[in-house]
Amino acid sequence: xxxxxxxxxxDSPAGPRRAPRGRPGYGFPRRWWAVLAEHPPPGAATANRxxxxxxxxxxxxxxxxxxLLVGLPLVFLTGLLDYVAYAPRFGQAYPRDVGWLRLPPxxxxxxxxxxxxxxxxxxxxxxxxxxxxVLAKLWSVLPKLFxxxxxxxxxxxxxxxxLLLLVGGILFEIATGLLDIQYAYLFGFDFYTAHYxxxxxxxxxLVAHVxxxxxxxxxxxxxxPLRRELATGRAATRPEPPDPDGLVAARPRPATTSRRxxxxxxxxxxxxxxxxxxxxxxxxxxxxxALLLPxxxxxxxxxxxxxxxxxxxxxxxxxxxxxxxxxxxxxANGRAVTVDRAGLLAMxxxxxxxxxxxxxxxxxVQTWSGVRLRDLAAxxxxxxxxxxxxxxxxxxxxxxxxxxxxxxxHDADALLALRVNGVDLTLDxxxxxxxxxxxxxxxxxxxxxxxxxxxxRTGG
Length: 460
What we know:
By secondary structure, this protein is an alpha+beta fold. The chain has 13 helices and 10 strands. InterPro entries: Di-haem_cyt_TM, Mopterin_OxRdtase_euk, OxRdtase_Mopterin-bd_dom, OxRdtase_Mopterin-bd_sf.
């Protein structure tokens, strides 16, 4: 057989051997990756050359990742607890319909009384504090976003999709969350629904990403002892060895700061944000330091100079609505009893010191006086209570009414408050009467109450 009749290596007499079409890197997929590589978008071919920081590498990226793996699940968990605090089984948590993401129903406890204050404070405060770490983590992997082609196999395509959902999800949650606590409703969509489902999308992507990358992250963390890096100054800072992910710059510049300095910068920014938000929980002069949370600042002095979430003007409640003609209607078992404010003041009064916490993250502790809710239930002969539906004078809004659980009605510190810190409620604080219940979200501590309907317990 001469050379011309010899089949090329890998071929058979029946013809050339063809690679399977369905496997990545072979047949059509292989040509597809090659076509992508030969036709990069403008600037993609030289993009990675612009990122020359010697600090970038698997170790620094993994350090930021560990911090986020501890902090972000806590933000997610406290967010879920806050959703439960709104009693979704009564249809008053938003979004109302979450499909198969529905959480197991249970009664939100009233003890400790600061429970919602803690969960919502951690959710908002820790979320803000982690923003610099999120941005630093994105900076550390920024060159990878300009890789071309973006993937060279089906497995890499799936990894890139999870990364897209991960990065897009966390940026969406941060942006919408920050706008919400600033009362800057620029969304064009329902914030509560988008934030809830966005959180689940992010967590699903996070789980997938951790499953794919955890081994490399652990290897990177073991490669450089943290103590040694914290003791290394700028002059001794060197790039990490080349890595398979291409995080290390191909032509790094001399270091302008050390990894220790980078960690100190990110940590310092996080501490600064924490300092600018912690005042939302502290009454008195410290509240002036809550510069990032305008609703959490001290609006004035005196016994009623603490923050409000929604003013009477914003709620459409006028002084004429709460004047001498105001009446509270109590309903139960087909009966209705009407009481004016003088009648409420003539009932047994109780005084409690309780926090009130808002969905935006701020909270305050004040001393409230009024009539116990369970005494009002007895006044209308409600019997066994399954829930209490409270309605407000508010003309519109998501929270102009709220349903309280049985344990919240029966709690000894649950009041229809008439006074605060020894003086009558002001109109903005809910005059002539408002609900105060331990560990209840502030928006469900309904102001300007006009009706309470005590509903019987169903089932055994």
